[in-house]
Amino acid sequence: MSQAVVSINYKKSVIDAVIAGLLALIVFGPIVGIVLDGYDFNAEPERLMWIVLTVMAGRLAASVFFQTSKGAAFLYKHSSKEEGVHVLPPGHKSKLRWIIPLTIVIALLVPFIASKYILTVVILGLIYVLLGLGLNIVVGLAGLLDLGFVGFYAIGAYGLALGYEHLGLGFWSMLPISAIIAAIFGAILGFPVLRMHGDYLAIVTLGFGEIIRLVLTNWTEVTQGPNGMNAPLPTFFGMEFKRRASEGHVPFHEFFGIPYSSVYKYIFIYLVLLLVVLGVLYVKKRLTKMPIGRAWEALREDEIACRSLGLNHVLVKLSAFMIGASTGGLAGVFFATYQGFVNPSSFTFFESALILAIVVLGGMGSTLGVVIAAFVLTVAPELLREFADYRVLAFGMLMVLMMIWKPRGLVRMTRTGVEQREGNVK
Amino acid sequence: MSSLMEFKEVDVHYGPIQALKKVSLSVNEGEIVTLIGANGAGKSTLLMSIFGQPRISSGEIIYRGEDISKKSSHYVASHGLAQSPEGRRIFPGMSVEENLLMGTIPIGMDHAEEDMRKMFDLFPRLEERRNQRASTMSGGEQQMLAIARALMSRPKLLLLDEPSLGLAPIIVKQIFEILKDVASTGMTIFLVEQNANHALKLADRGYVMVNGEIRMSGTGDELLVNPEVREAYLGGH
């Protein structure tokens, strides 16, 4: 294609800039321009003027840039051109294959080089990776919009706390049991919503999440309500990570003859969590290649076609709900043990929205995208503590920009085509 | 010839509306049977009722000596009945191969490679496009894919719902050529069509449905020359 001479329509750019300026005036005017002082208002036109001028200058520059050939190419590259899954040629090997082992090595080194604070932030990031992966199966693969995913997270977390309080079970017994309980609740939620789609499903699942939270808040005899409950720390072959162990136990640091440090427990939680995340990643990768994974995607694409093919949609939907829920339950157990304490206020609808945002921003169905998005949305706010006031604003802006330019998420779901085989199929 | 599938006085209701009225028909082993009729006559309802969607309100659907009218759709599909649904209903975001693999759900993956080879021999166009997303193919190719997907479950009886829907006349002709090839392998086919001309030429026997009732039946050739059928479905000439 020959390089076309691009003429820039400056008049259009100026109009764009003026419109952006007016919008900025409307949006920022009441917030920035008027400052409450006791019972009076002080007008601050100067600050407002600077903001509006910046917006106008930025809009002018952007408008001119997008009219140049470079800008047009940029727009074309970043606009969504096609829908759905991207199928790679068979035998495709990514050029970035070396990143996976490198990431695992770095991940294993993190606890030994990072400070305690960074370690706790990364643990939180990994917990959200688990939550994202769980919801990704339900929303991304099976296409069932679940707004109450936080319910399973709460069940996992309270599973650990209640098991410790009432049954005397520790972290290691409750880890699998909580996952199973969460899966059972996934089935309980799954049965009534088998015939529902889209909006109706979203509303029912939203209700489910709230029911779980309200039960935890109000059933005070069992859950101690808003006061919360203590959750146990994990043990290392029966050794505890406390300064002084309880009756009949040896603390970890005494056994190895090293001085006590509170960081050991975080290192241990981190390593266990990392193993679980890697395990879930592996299982999920296998599942998407198995018939059940294809069945989830088929159900998302066309339910009527699935029925005409004789797909048992009850089994397929329930399995998606249950596997997703059990992953959420695992995340909950780690959250409880990491905090050492759970209470219902950790499991509000905002958490569900955040997990959903991780899946949508990461790219529906894309594992890599979900991992990246989970870290971006949980670690970034921690690192930018000083800007905490603007966190939700930045979050909203990120969402809007993503939906305009990358509606399929950060990383598009890709699948390698089926290899042509020797033998029967040539 | 023994009857492979038989409808015995089947009624279907959608709420207060009766869609099928005492429908009786039979499909014998190795035959091509067609059901023709106008829009809204109840043809698709009849086909979907085999899979229990909707459930019939009275009567029996006998398949190989067993009443399947109360069985689940996956039971029916895993016992040798496959259908290519109305409007094709392929999985748009999946590749051709993945669509074909979805067809193996009722019987498992054991014969997947062998059968896929057979499908590619039958539909060479699909082999050219095996790693292409199904939504990027033409209507005729998508219809071929829908038929091939149905055949992947090794059915005893292939049910087709309007394979000519929305296709150019020349493509319709190709599709019917392919159906003739499929039938020559001994496959029993039950074809629901609006394109009466093509369908009756292909079929051994045919039924004419009007307002949820079977109005006429006979061999394909008999119906083709029947003045009433010609008047109503073949443009009167």
UniProtKB/TrEMBL annotation, chain A:
NCBIfam families: PRK11301.1 (NF008450). This is Amino acid/amide ABC transporter membrane protein 2 (HAAT family). One of its GO terms (molecular function) is branched-chain amino acid transmembrane transporter activity. It comes from the Bacteria. It comes from Marinomonas aquiplantarum. It is a multi-pass membrane protein. Keywords: Cell membrane, Membrane, Transmembrane, Transmembrane helix. Residues 13-109 form the High-affinity branched-chain amino acid transport system permease LivHM N-terminal domain. It is found in: Cell inner membrane. InterPro entries: ABC_transp_permease (IPR001851), LivHM_N (IPR021807), LivM-like (IPR043428). One of its GO terms (cellular component) is plasma membrane. The chain crosses the membrane at residues 17-36, 48-66, 98-131, 138-159, 171-193, 263-283, 318-341, 353-380, 387-405.
UniProtKB/TrEMBL annotation, chain B:
InterPro entries: AAA+_ATPase, ABC_branched_ATPase_LivF/BraG, ABC_transporter-like_ATP-bd, ABC_transporter-like_CS, BCAA_Transport_ATP-bd_LivF, P-loop_NTPase. It comes from the Bacteria. SMART domains: AAA. Keywords: Amino-acid transport, ATP-binding, Nucleotide-binding, Transport. One of its GO terms (molecular function) is ATP hydrolysis activity. Residues 5-236 form the ABC transporter domain. One of its GO terms (biological process) is L-amino acid transport. It holds the Pfam family ABC_tran. Belongs to the ABC transporter superfamily. This is High-affinity branched-chain amino acid transport ATP-binding protein.
